Structure prediction request, 706 residues.
Amino acid sequence: MQLQLVSIGSVMLQIATLLYLFSMAGYLCFLFVQKDRIQKISFSLVAIAVGVHFFSIVVTGFAAKDLPVQNMVQSLSLAALAFGCMFLYFQYRFNLKILGLFASIFLSILMLVVMLIPDTPVASNEILRGFWFIAHIVLIFTGDAALGLACGAGILYLLQEQGIKAKTPGFFFKRLPSLDFLDDVSYTCITTGFTLLTFGLVTGFIYAKTVWGRFWSWDFKEVFSIGTWLVYAALLHFRFHAGWRGRKSAIMTIIGFVIIIFTFLGVNIFLGGHHQEFTK
Amino acid sequence: MSNIFLIGANHKTAPVELREKLSFTAEEILGALEYLKTAPHIKEGLVFSTCNRMEILYIPEAGDQVEAMIQFISQHKKIAVSEFRSALYIHEGDEAIRHLFQVSSSLDSMMVGEPQILGQIKKAYVVALEEGASGVLLNRMMHKAFSVAKRVRKETGIGDNAVSISYAAIELANKIFGDLSSKSVMLLGAGEMAELAVEHLMSHNVKQIIVANRTFKNALALAQKFKGQAIQFEEREEALKDVDIIISSTGAREYVLTQIQVKRAMKKRHHNTIFFIDIAVPRDIDPKINKVSNAYVYDIDDLKSIVETNIAQREQETIKAARFVEEGVLTFRKWMDSLSIVPTIKSINDKMTTIVEMEFNKTISSLTHLSCEDIEAVRRMTQAIATRTIHDPIRFLRNTGDHRDDSLYLNVTRQLFGLDIPEKDG
Prediction:
């Protein structure tokens, strides 16, 4: 019964990956052809993929009777799901059609990595349970996803800005929305992501207290997480007080997201620490 | 057989002074429609008038009625015939249809591809429809014009590219700011160029217009014209704090805004985006300002080079659009031709014969016990029923009364019998 569930979960994950890849192809078509229908189809594909992906994770989690963040594959898969959900939300809110291109490419890459690296089974770990743990994971993952989308909007901003500044409005000029709008989307993503991240860190501290008896233990991941948080705090601060908007803000979102990716993966791979368990 | 006529004058045939005299106000259009409705020799009519064109579309009962129409324009607009006769174009039949389709597709506009014209024509059509001046033919023709326009817009890139300087500038402003209705504009210099640029911007409903000029009196006059605000020329740096788009067209020899001034202003405006459009020669805005972050400077040469690229791309699209128009004319012509009595009767007969044949064969094939005579008798009976059924409708169609609009009845008949392949209209 359990084995069956696991295999159902992995088949669904494969289907979801395929759907993400199709949606990426669709969005690439949309970039060139600019037909609304293609965008709608691609968007629906992402939405279906996210649904399938969600059920795959539920099934896997149900089989293992744990939140599936036990190893690297599961963590990345959950991160992709969080990203997909956040994308659906922001697309619904802003209807920034071309953002799907960034999202579907990012999701496809993540899922291909998930497919390619070995899914080493890990003995279920007692400490990776409980309300604070789940809250910590959900908040951090969705927060990072929102900041990832901010980075996406930032990249689109830089593409559009570069053309306008250089006075050679070219391929992207018609295909991307206005600078102010992209800046708005990026800013909303940042504030959303930053809020989620803040609560994610707080729940993380509480969780650490319940498991290890202390809020802070100078773990590498903790240090980097605080570092990430400070980068975005600085970005928001300068935006309010020194007018860091537009280009500067866009560059910062990209730097911030690179740091997030490093915190998410690099720390575990290169530095070690007690977050190691998730990414074996 | 009805023929379609179109009389008008546009930006290609009439200078602006004449167009102003010929243009119809909303009330004058109502008056004109009333005339078209009640004039004894005119079946249907429609009038549209924009700042670039005035056109009257009508279907005469008999003759061409061109002279009567010109007389009417002369009386209605109180302008001597000799004054505008040479500026008029008169199209008939397919030429009129083609012209209408070209206009609605924005191929005949001053700025080819501009999107407003379709809305203006739709409005004119709705007015004519409400007044009861337009009828079956014009209604169908207008709908076809809308669908051709829609196709041209959707399937060609004709509306994509800005091909005039001011339009290019507005497109850039749109790509920088998105929504212009919350943005303020400052004019530096109160010349004719500035005025033109603002006229275009006004159609996008900007929030506020500020005019700065060395001669304050001129600034005041222009500001009043656009319901804006006039300021002293020396206040321009201070005003940068509150405006988002600057259009400069002074005759100054030196830059009227320098990089240092803009850098100072950017701090005060919290680095919110600012866009400079410099249409003056020699230039007014220091090009180095473009290096300041979130500030964009386009001078007249930058805009010109964008326009040139766009024009080259657009010519390709115009060829495609012309083909769509031609196809539209053909479809409409086909429908017009079908709208006469003989082909309609023939279509009804053909349809009935097909139905009778089909149903007869279906029934007979299962009735194997009938003799050849019986089969023949049944066949005669089914044919007789069909003939008798359509006898009265056909007689009604043949018997054209004196005060009857054939096209109306033919149209209804064709719809009742489902003789036209339904057409998708915009």
Observations:
- DSSP finds nine helices and no strands in chain A.
- Chain A touches chain B through 20 residues (CB under 8 Å).
- Residues 131-165 of chain A form the longest helix (35 residues).
- The radius of gyration of chain A is 19 Å.
